[in-house]
Write a structure and sequence with these properties.
Elements: E1 5-10, H1 19-28, E2 33-38, E3 53-54, H2 58-68, E4 72-76, H3 81-91, E5 95-98, H4 101-105, H5 115-122, H6 125-136, E6 145-150, H7 155-160, E7 168-170, H8 177-180, E8 189-195, H9 203-211, E9 217-222, H10 226-235, E10 240-242, H11 251-255, E11 258-262, H12 276-283, E12 287-291, H13 297-301, E13 306-308, H14 314-318, H15 324-335, H16 339-342, H17 344-361
Parallel strand pairs: 1-2, 1-4, 2-3, 4-5, 5-6, 6-7, 8-9, 8-11, 9-10, 11-12, 12-13
C-alpha cells in the first residue's frame, strides 16, 4: 500500500534547540513519505538530520509542492500560517499545525497599558510578532485546515481568538520518552537548559549557584545572549559551568549526571510554557524545580516536581535528595509527553485527510 505523503514546512531545520521536531519526525518517518523544507538556516544545526530542501521563496516551495503532490502540508508554530495558509490554498492541499508555548502564550490578554507606553510597545519586535500571529489565525478556520495541535492550557486563548473548538486538538509536548527513560541512579550535580533569552531568566540560576558553592551547577544554554550570562557568572565567582551545545541523542547521558533540574523563568513575563526539558528530566529520574509562573504548570509538572514561588526557596529543596515518590511520579508524568503514545493525535488527522480524498476519488 502506498504511503501517504506529508510535506513539512519548517522555519529552521535542523535546529538543535528544536528537538521536538526531530522527535516528531523520527516517530512518523517510516510510516509516511516525508518531504522537508527548511525556510531559513539553523544557527546551531544538529548532526544526522533527515534530507531536506533549503528554500526561502514561496514560489519555490509551491513548485516543489506541485512536483511532490503531497497529501498534507504540516508545520510548527502558528506564525508559519502566513506561509502555509496561502500555499495550501494555491495548491489545494490540506494542512496541519503543531503550535507551541511561544506562539499561543503570546495571545493571552494583556494588562491595560498607558496610551504612550502602548504606542511604544506596539512597535517593538515582540508585539509585531504577536500582530503577525493574530493577523493570520483566520487560516486555522479554513476548510483546508485539518487541525491545530495545542497544549491544553492554550485552548481558551485560541478559542477566544475565534478558532473553532473542533479545530483544536489538546496534546502534551513532544519527547522521545524511550531515549530518556532510565531508572538507574543519578549524579549529584544541578542543571538548567534552554535558550538564553530573557523569559528564561537564567541569571536566577547563576545567583542560585553562587549561594551553594559546594554544589556543581551546569548550564546548557543556547543562543546569542550566552555571553551576557557568562559575564554575569564572572561577577558571581564563576559559580556555573557553561556546557557547549550537546547533540540531542547525547543529552540523556547529560541528564543522568544530575540530581536536580532547576528550570528558571521570569515571573514578570510568565511566558515560559511547557518545556520539553521538564519531561525529559523526569524520564531520566532527575528531580524537577520550576517557578510557579502560571497555574497551568500544575497540570504539566504534576506530582513529579516542585513549583517554587521564589528562587530563594530553591536552595532548601535541592540541598536534599529527590523524594522517591516524586521521582516515581516523574516517570509517569513524563510518559504523557511521549510522542510514541500521542502521535496518533497528529497522524489521525493526516489519515483522515487521505481517507476523505480516496472516498471523493471513488
Amino acid at each position: 500500500m502506498k504511503k501517504a505523503s506529508i510535506f513539512y514546512i519548517i522555519r529552521g531545520y535542523p535546529q538543535i534547540s528544536q528537538t521536538y521536531i526531530k522527535s516528531e519526525l523520527e516517530a512518523v518517518y517510516d510510516d509516511y513519505e516525508i518531504t522537508i523544507v527548511s525556510r531559513q538556516p539553523s544557527d546551531i544545526p544538529y548532526q544526522n538530520s533527515y534530507p531536506y530542501h533549503a528554500l526561502v521563496e514561496l514560489d519555490a516551495i509551491q513548485a516543489l509542492i506541485e512536483q511532490v503532490k503531497p497529501d498534507v502540508l504540516h508545520t510548527h508554530y502558528l506564525n508559519q500560517l502566513q506561509f502555509v495558509g496561502p500555499l495550501a490554498e494555491r495548491t489545494g492541499t490540506p494542512f496541519t499545525v503543531r503550535s507551541h508555548s511561544y506562539d499561543t502564550l503570546s495571545l493571552r490578554p494583556k494588562k491595560r497599558l498607558g496610551k504612550l507606553r502602548q504606542i511604544v510597545e506596539w512597535n517593538t519586535p515582540q508585539f509585531k510578532k504577536v500582530r503577525n500571529i493574530r493577523s493570520n489565525l483566520h487560516w486555522s478556520n479554513h476548510e483546508l485546515c485539518a487541525g491545530i495541535l495545542a497544549f491544553p492550557f492554550a485552548r481558551p486563548y485560541l478559542e477566544k481568538e475565534g478558532i473553532q473548538p473542533d479545530k483544536i486538538i489538546d496534546c502534551f509536548p513532544v519527547i522521545n520518552y524511550d531515549l530518556f527513560y532510565d531508572r538507574s541512579p543519578n549524579g549529584d550535580a544541578i542543571m538548567n537548559t534552554g535558550a538564553a533569552i530573557p523569559k528564561k531568566k537564567m541569571s536566577d540560576y547563576i545567583q542560585l549557584a553562587s549561594w551553594m558553592p559546594d554544589k556543581e551547577f551546569n548550564l546548557y544554554a543556547l543562543g546569542y545572549r550566552v555571553d551576557k550570562l557568562e559575564s554575569f557568572n564572572k561577577t558571581k565567582q564563576n559559580s556555573v559551568n557553561f556546557i557547549p551545545p550537546v547533540e540531542p541523542n547525547q543529552m540523556p547521558a547529560e541528564y543522568k549526571k544530575h540530581r536536580w533540574l532547576v528550570y528558571t523563568a521570569a515571573f514578570e513575563l510568565a511566558t515560559v510554557g511547557w518545556p520539553m526539558a521538564i519531561a525529559e528530566a523526569q524520564a531520566a529520574g532527575v528531580g524537577v524545580c520550576m517557578p510557579r509562573i502560571r497555574a497551568d504548570l500544575e497540570q504539566y509538572v504534576g506530582q513529579g516536581g516542585f513549583l517554587y514561588d521564589s528562587i530563594n526557596d530553591v536552595p532548601d529543596i535541592i540541598s536534599k535528595p529527590v523524594p522517591e515518590e516524586m521521582r516515581e511520579a516523574g516517570f509517569s508524568q513524563a510518559k504523557k509527553s511521549d510522542i510514541r503514545g500521542h502521535k496518533h493525535l497528529l497522524t489521525d488527522l493526516w489519515d483522515n485527510v487521505v481517507s476523505r480524498s480516496q472516498t471523493f476519488a471513488c
